[in-house]
Write a structure and sequence with these properties.
Helices cover 77% and strands 0% of the residues. It is mainly alpha-helical. The protein has one domain.
């Protein structure tokens, strides 16, 4: 809980920023809003973990019924919420990533829901192409992630590999490729959750958990 002195100091700081540069909204946002990224990364990571158990063949396809509610609530809604806050903070990369992958989980959830209700059928080739397109999107996001830190670099690296393996696995009806996609999904989820853990830990004590150096400088 903040005491009156802390609140007064924050108000003074905000007023100072407004006085010096009244148009610098992002500076105020970044200073006094919580970082939403750990929420989005955890939502993406844990939902991906669960689905990867199915893709890797560890759990049966019936387990998708457990994945779906998580995909809608945590993977979908929580990431869309994260994306909205990243936009408010002026973070173009975070806004694009979290909003897109939140939408992906909603796409996946509705796809499975409508198929289970026999409203639609899911052609394997069309699903494969859709996943490959998500792989291409992730590939160009990875090109920016390599300039942030090692942990995010590895998250996006394994994610585009997972999408491509799952996409080609669906397109060619290859169990081997699908299970390989599940393995890459586990690696993606691990680094996403680790990044979330590191950001939360470092918010308590700076430099507590390393994220690793960026491959290239900004």
């Amino acid at each position: 809980m903040e005491n009156n002195k802390d609140i007064k100091n924050e108000n003074v700081a905000i007023n100072k920023i407004k006085t010096e540069d009244p148009l610098n909204v992002n500076q105020i946002n970044k200073s006094f809003l919580a970082d939403p990224a750990p929420l989005g990364l955890a939502a993406f990571g844990f939902t991906t973990f669960l689905l990867s158990f199915v893709n890797a063949g560890i759990l049966s396809v019936a387990a998708v019924s457990v994945v779906m509610p998580l995909a809608f609530s945590y993977g979908g809604f929580a990431q869309l919420l994260t994306g909205a806050f990243e936009m408010r903070r002026g973070n173009t990369f975070g806004f694009t990533a979290f909003t897109s992958y939140g939408s992906f989980w909603l796409f996946y959830g509705f796809l499975v829901l409508f198929a289970s209700m026999k409203i639609i059928t899911i052609p394997a080739t069309a699903l494969g192409i859709a996943l490959i397109l998500w792989g291409l999107f992730t590939l160009y996001m990875w090109a920016s992630a390599i300039r942030l830190n090692l942990s995010l670099n590895l998250t996006f690296l394994f994610l585009w590999l997972a999408f491509f393996m799952l996409g080609f696995g669906a397109y060619y009806s290859s169990t081997t490729l699908t299970r390989l996609g599940g393995v890459f999904g586990f690696l993606t989820a691990f680094f996403a959750v680790y990044t979330s853990f590191a950001i939360v830990s470092n918010s308590v004590k700076e430099g507590l958990v390393p994220l690793g150096p960026a491959l290239f400088k900004k």
